[in-house]
Amino acid sequence: MNCKSFVRHHCLLFLALITLFNFGCKEEDYASKLGTSAKASFKVSKVAGKQNTYLLESTSQGAYRYQWDFGLNEGLKSGGSSIEAYFITKGTYNVKLYAHGEGGYDIATQPVIVEQDDFTPTLNDATYKLLTAHTWKLDAASAAPIIVGTENNPGEYYGGGALVNCQVDDDYTFTFTNNAFKLTYRANGQTLHGGNCGSDRSYESAFTFSKTVEGAGIATITIPGNAPDRFIGITDPSSNNYRIISITASEMVLRSGKVGAVVHQMRFVKK
């Protein structure tokens, strides 16, 4: 190989290596491939003729999916670009909109000021009346008073079994007292926690009752705080969000946990 061909050969090889290196190290513009992130915003207006009811309307840019948080400790609610929110009690609620775009999501927050209470619809509701008619206890006569699973198969992980002795005398009472909703839990000695009968975890707590339900059920009960300080039925629910699946004058089925989380389904009877 003469000198000229040697130089030409190695120059071409060098150029090829530079081209390959540049191609391999080229930065990918993933953001442009995903699209533009949403810019969340919404407006609030009172609904004429409906007490304590507000229309929330998204004014977001670049959004295709919406989730709403009414500030009621009930978590996110899937919905369209507009949704009605109802508030039983007066107060200031920090309402949030999660607007999802192709390139990501954004959150907008606005305070909604409710100036007066509106208990009448709840107090007159047929399901609420059944809930508060008497005290409830877990159904010790049932072969499966508590099952554990998923939303589509509530008994998938645990199909049920007999109650432990310290569970049998636990009771729960829902009342409306002194212009407030109150839940009273009485352990009557011991509370089952971590698989063992332990200290008495009796409590009194506020609760909210709503006919808005995500997933199966006819009404939602929400209690503030976290287990094991606050709970219904079992001390390890995935959340303190409970759905009334069914209720009669003598029986009630509650399901703890939201759609997508582990659920505990519990059978209660009139005490």
UniProtKB/TrEMBL annotation:
Pfam families hit by this protein? Lipocalin_4
InterPro entries, alphabetized: Ig-like_fold, Lipocalin-like, PKD_dom, PKD_dom_sf
Top-level taxon in the UniProt lineage: Bacteria
Q: Which SUPFAM superfamilies match?
A: PKD domain
> Cross-referenced Gene3D superfamilies, in alphabetical order?
Immunoglobulins
User: Per the UniProt entry, what species is this protein from, by scientific name?
Assistant: Pedobacter xixiisoli
- Domain named PKD is located at 35-115
This chain belongs to the protein called Lipocalin-like domain-containing protein
